[in-house]
Amino acid sequence: MNASKNILITGGAGFIGSHVVRLFVNKYPNYHIYNLDTLTYAGNLENLSDIEGRSNYTFVKLNICDTFSLSKFFDLVEFDGIIHLAAESHVDRSISNPGAFIETNILGTVNLLNLARNQWKDKLEGKRFYHISTDEVYGSLGDTGYFTESTAYDPRSPYSSSKASSDHLVRAYHHTYKMPVVITNCSNNYGPNQFPEKLIPLVINNIKTKKALPVYGKGLNIRDWLYVEDHAAAIDLVFHNGKNGDTYNIGGSNEWKNIELVKKLCQIMDTKLGREAGESEKLITYVTDRAGHDMRYAIDSSKIQNELGWKPSVNFEQGLEKTVDWYLANQAWMDNILSGEYEKYYEAQYKER
Ligand code: NAD
Ligand code: TYD
């Protein structure tokens, strides 16, 4: 049995965070998991309804930018580890409103670093500040090559720039103040509970409701997709076994052109919904490209594979099937999101394209 620990997970009501919280609450009954989340449009406690009443789990509604309240909270609980996922995470929103990304992703991260540093000032031994980041900090690849841990940072969207900035600050606190940190940079995730503004859930929902499937540009951009539970398993490994001060890249070795991926989803959904083959593909609509759209992301994950023994366990075919099944079985979850604010975002985002 693992020694008892207080673990703070930020952003635990979001997509990836909810899978990480569930894994830790279930796997480590000796840990107390504090899920700190301000519940932006992307945060949803329904994602965690199955573990809500568990004795080793506490939800705390707090904004990481609210220094005063955050510091009061740090006065109450002494943490052994912090797994920091809270962020503004959608590239398209960062293009229309970069300020929110600077605040949460940069200033919010610095707040957490400062409070952790203050709490741990005389006892760094055994502590860990784990910053969750993205492969988008490395910029955009051409037809060949992979992002490694030593690829130079070249972020090109307000989102990736704000994440890159936070990565630099986390490393700076390690070098300057000896903060015990670890960082991972992961490729695109997919799976249950992903907010439907991201490509895969958006397409699943639009196929179901027979709405246009908006493909940016020519649909030739490439992403490296990883099933969210494989990311959560990697986070568990790195949190416990990662080397202090190190960075690990996490990816699915699973590159897909957007248009091929959308067609694949159409095929799966036609079968599941009993529609004629080819019916959903007719919904594909090419729309104006995203400004500054990165062409290709692809991760070399050999370091985490060789050093920590991680590898993805869910193949893409199975992962997509599981994801589609989850969305079809959880229409109420989707309906709650589709009402209200998100509807306004969708109108504004796709009306002009
Ligand atoms: P998400 O948008 O689904 O969830 C983000 C969560 O953070 C939400 O619950 C939201 O309420 C919370 N949050 C936002 N601002 C906050 C604030 N100021 N204070 C407290 N909580 C706040 O994001 P996600 O896709 O789950 O991503 C989680 C992390 O993983 C992010 O740091 C993101 O950069 C990183 N990441 C995501 C992907 C991906 O494909 N989704 C890939 C690599 C890395
Ligand atoms: P997204 O899920 O927003 O993730 P990211 O921008 O972090 O990679 O988008 C994945 C890819 O799909 C990206 O190349 C943009 C493209 N895309 C579309 O073609 N249409 C859409 O409606 C969306 C949301 C994304």
Across the major sheet, the strand order is 3-2-1-4-5-6-10
% residues in beta strands: 15-25%
How many H/I helices? 12
Which of globular, elongated, flat, extended, rod-shaped describes the shape? globular
CATH superfamily grouping of the domain at 5-192 and 226-251 and 295-314 and 342-351: NAD(P)-binding Rossmann-like Domain
Largest sheet: 7 strands, parallel
Number of strands: 12
Ligand inventory reads: nicotinamide-adenine-dinucleotide, thymidine-5'-diphosphate
**Rg to the nearest angstrom?**
20 Å
How far is it from the N-terminal to the C-terminal residue, by CA? Answer: 54 Å
State the order of secondary-structure elements, H for helix, E for strand.
Answer: EHEEHEHHEHEEHEEHEEHEHHHH
- CATH architectural group of the domain at 5-192 and 226-251 and 295-314 and 342-351: 3-Layer(aba) Sandwich
Mean pLDDT: 97
CATH C-level of the domain at 5-192 and 226-251 and 295-314 and 342-351:
Alpha Beta
Question: Could you characterize the architecture of this molecule?
Answer:
With 353 residues, this protein is an alpha/beta fold. It has a domain at 5-192 and 226-251 and 295-314 and 342-351: 3-Layer(aba) Sandwich (Rossmann fold), CATH 3.40.50. It has helices spanning 15-27, 67-76, 91-96, 98-119, 158-177, 199-208, 228-241, 258-272, 302-308, 316-329, 331-338, 341-351; strands at residues 5-10, 31-37, 57-61, 81-84, 128-134, 181-186, 188-190, 213-216, 222-227, 247-250, 255-257, 284-287. It is globular, with a radius of gyration of 20 Å. The model has no long low-confidence stretch (mean pLDDT 97). The chain binds nicotinamide-adenine-dinucleotide (NAD) and thymidine-5'-diphosphate. Nicotinamide-adenine-dinucleotide binds at residues 10-11, 13-17, 37-40, 42-43, 63-65, 85-89, 104, 108, 132, 134, 163, 186, 188-189, 195.
